[in-house]
Amino acid sequence: MALLGLLDREPSHGYDLKRDYDTFFSRGKPLPFGQVYATLGRLVRDGKIVVGEVEPGVGPERKRYVITERGATEVDSWLTEPVEAEPNLQTVLFTKVVLALMLGRPAEEYLDRQRAAHLRRMKELTDIRRGGDLVDTLLADHGLFHLEADLHWIDTTVARLDALREAVTRR
Amino acid sequence: MKAVEARDVVLNFGETPALRGASVAVAPGEIVAIMGPSGSGKSTLLHCLAGILVPDAGEIHFDGHRIDTLSEGQRSALRRDQFGFVFQFGQLVPELTAEENVALPLLLGGVKRAAALREARPWFARLGLDGLEQRRSGELSGGQAQRVALARGLVARPGALFADEPTGALDSLTGEQVMELLVSSARDQGTTVVLVTHDARVAAYADRQVIVRDGRVNALVHS
């Protein structure tokens, strides 16, 4: 959907689309070219974009992709739909804690390790944030707030571990 | 750059144990965040490291020297000459201007007034406080007051800066500006920083985080 959205801005080539996608949406994890062209092929097949004029050049011919009315309508509708509110109630984190308690394993040690992993990732994101522009900052903030919420949950769970152990082993 | 270390520190407040064998070593120039739940002993540990409290057992070292065995007067001189402090609520002296507040550690260290103010002034531009030199603490916003407090903590180029919830009274954006300035200024000067915070976003500015729980430093959580 992000590629389709970028084409709603203006017609573009595969290479430029990948560059814009990597800049705005995929920091540190570039989109493979293969995936870009596979997605564009699917969007053409579904009638959401068409191939415009082909520009001859020194290298391979460059196809220019143009969004169709159908594609633009889909972007409009997607931008107004809220995403499903995350997280759902059954996270891996939660499952690990409950299972550890049920099996008599050291849940607190697991939570401590998880906290360390979260803090390490928060440090990485803070470093990205400190050295970056506003797009980097907002992207890092999104990750930081989610990790922070997990940490609150970890702290609350550690404080209630004895009661939780009793609740899950009693059933 | 100077190292700070607590070794097996025990401290009781009357019958109540606050620290039960807490150990933490902060390398020269390192920035370490001490985290932990309320009542875990994290501020007590900071106060021991900073020579404010004397442990019942265990050792505190600064720059390779044991400081918990020093007299009250010697520790007081050490705090004045080698340590900088930032607290949750700036704790500026309300009768003094912002500029005089920043210069205070130098004045207390015997530097002449004109020279102390000369040292203090560049901090206002450095921390985005231009034009506020003559304001008193009541005329500063929370973020401004905390930046003045940070300048005061660093003006004498201390070997170590101790910060207890330095952003605790600020909104998150202002708090992050203060942390950014704290970290970059400390790095510029090579100051070792020990920071107590309950806020993981603040702790993420540090090189390393440790967790205090039930009066001990949790060894698993070094990241």
Automatic annotation (TrEMBL), chain B:
Organism expressing this protein natively: Micromonospora costi
InterPro entries in alphabetical order: AAA+_ATPase, ABC_transporter-like_ATP-bd, ABC_transporter-like_CS, ABC_transpr_LolD-like, MacB-like_ATP-bd, P-loop_NTPase
GO cellular component terms, semicolon-separated: plasma membrane
Name of this chain's protein: ABC transporter ATP-binding protein
Domain ABC transporter, chain residue ranges per copy: 4-223
Taxonomy, superkingdom: Bacteria
Pfam families listed in its UniProt record: ABC_tran
Keywords tagged on the record: ATP-binding, Nucleotide-binding, Transport
Record bears the keyword ATP-binding: yes
GO molecular function: ATP binding; ATP hydrolysis activity; transmembrane transporter activity
